[in-house]
Amino acid sequence: MTGLTFNRAGYRIVTDLPEGMRPWRDRPTAWENVSPSTGTYHLNADGVYLYYPTASSPGLDHPVGQAQFGLGCVTSYRAEADPARRAVFLTRAKAQAERLIARRTEARGAWWFPYGFDFTHTVHSGVSYTAPWYSGMAQGEVISLFVQLAGLDEVCDEDRDRYMAAAAGALASLQVADDGYPWAVNVDADGYVWIQEYPGADPGTGDYTYNGMVFAMFGLWDYVAATGDEDAAALYDGCATTLARYFPSLRNVRWYSHYCQTHRIPAPTYHQHHVRLYQQLHWQTGSADLADATDRLIDDVPAQGVGGTVQFAAGSHTLYRLDTAADGSWVEAKADAELERKTVTFSRSTQAPASMRRRIQGRGVYYRISAGTYSGWWVGESWTTAYLRGQYVPTVYRPARTVTFPGGGTTVDVFQVEADGTVSGIKTAVYWSPTDALVSRRAVVNGRAMYLITGGSLDGYWVPASAVTADASGPAAG
User: Fold this and answer.
1) By C-alpha distance, which of 27, 9, 2, 471 is closest to 236?
2) Nearest to residue 280, comparing CAs of 470, 473, 21, 26?
3) Tens digit of pLDDT for each residue in 284-339?
């Protein structure tokens, strides 16, 4: 790679992923959204996805929007059974690719895909551009679009060759340093490589945006899976090394993770993106440290679209009224301020429905009761006294991770738990020396984090995360 030397920890790309774990498969374009004709983003007469800042403005190129719309169409095309719909999805995806190819700029031995409008970030100072401008996120995402289109059987050989040539041209833009213009990749003072979603005006400057780099890495994964290219694999390794090194900066313990390295502003709308992106990085590399990062982000702020039945133990419980949106969601100006509290006592165990489970600002994870005498009140999660029955917010591991039971005769109870939270079996494990077990997933089970054991005499049992030590090593060996 031209002018680029950077730290590499040895992250290897796993190319034999199941279909559902491959890049962009989690972001299909719904049929009802395949032909948008109005709104800020919609199709022109040629089926190209364009940006319309005002109702009267001409359509402007948005490479990330075009790549993501096209990739969503490719994903839906693969899953669609109806031939007529499949044809539309493929036509839409190809229209985005053709537009990107036609509007490219060739410079520094690479293909660059310009944004057609001026842009100033309203939150992050220093991110301001006059069209045309370029983004490393876009450069990586168009690689995915070109490679994924080229891999479809229905694409003719001529188009397949053109798409792979376009992917190679885009890849070249991620292999030149920041010593010329345009640029999208730089190496920081400590030797870590970054694909910049928002490159700065000067070499080595930028927003150092986390999600933008991961989305660009998906293009590297696609290219390596299709071609085995060693330079693309090396850059992926370097980027994964960077993300592992700077995970403590991305993470904002017990609150929303940060959007970028430069500003370190909590990003409520991006936290769940970070969860999904780190999970995909784990799948793409098979590395336990990236799985562990996923789990930490889930623990910090779990997805809040979870409801169910709260099991209350007999005894006293403190309930809270909190200052939130009407549906219980967090509002920055309200900050989950406590409005009222009270203590209730139940003479026997009881249950109540909950509409939401989420992190409360400055507190733990709470449930919002949704019916009955205490509707609208919140109670803190505790697996012994108040917990949501069932299994929630799973992290799927591939490959399985290793957890270690303590030795010294320490007893550890493990559980068979049904989907509704019913405990159908309990075993007690006891080992005199530390003993490993494989686990295939992690979830919140009846109010506490647990790992699902796979294989051996404890197969199918959940072990509390607090009772074992999980591996969190770096790149997977071999």
Assistant:
1) 9
2) 21
3) 999 999 999 999 999 999 998 888 999 999 999 999 999 999 999 999 999 999 99
pLDDT digits (tens, 9 = 90+) for 108-151: 999 999 999 999 998 888 899 999 999 999 999 999 999 999 99
Contact partners, residue 460, CB within 8 Å, separation at least 6: 416, 452, 453, 454
Confidence class for position 473, pLDDT limits 50, 70, 90: confident
Mention every residue, 6+ apart, whose C-beta is less than 8 A from residue 45.
none
Angle between helices 63-79 and 136-150 (to 10 degrees): 30
Give the per-residue pLDDT at 77.
Answer: 98
Distances (CA, A) of 229 to 224, 273, 312: 5, 28, 56
Task: Determine the angle formed by the axes of helices 271-285 and 288-300, rounding to 10 degrees.
Answer: 160
Query: Strand runs (DSSP E) across 287-336, as ranges?
Result: 308-312, 315-322
CB atoms within 10 A of CB 456: 11
The C-alpha torsion from 295 through 244 and 224 to 61, rounded to 10°, is: 90
Length, in residues, of the chain? 478
Cα 202 to Cα 190: distance, rounded to the nearest angstrom: 18
Rg, C-alpha atoms of the chain: 25
Token pair of 65 as six digits: 């929007």
What pLDDT band is residue 385 in, cutting at 50, 70 and 90? very high
Q: Averaged over 60-67, what is the pLDDT?
A: 98
What is d(CA 240, CA 246) in angstroms, rounded to the nearest whole number? 10
Rounded to 10 deg, the angle between the 63-79 and 83-102 helix axes is: 160
Helices 210-227 and 271-285 sit at what angle, rounded to 10 degrees?
30
CA neighbor of 20 nearest in space, from 384, 283, 317: 283
Residue 478: pLDDT band (50, 70, 90) is very low
How far is the C-alpha of 395 from the C-alpha of 424, rounded, in Å? 22
Please enumerate, as own/partner, the contacts of 376-381 that have beta carbons within 8 Å and a separation of 24 or more.
376/321, 377/319, 377/320, 377/321, 377/342, 378/319, 378/320, 378/321, 378/322, 379/310, 379/312, 379/317, 379/318, 379/319, 379/320, 380/318, 381/357, 381/447
pTM over 0.90: yes
Whole-number pLDDT of residue 168: 98
CA 309 – CA 386 distance, rounded (Å) = 10
Contacting residues for 70 by C-beta, under 8 A, at least 6 apart: 49, 92, 93, 94, 95, 96, 97, 145, 149
Token representation of residue 24: 């962009």
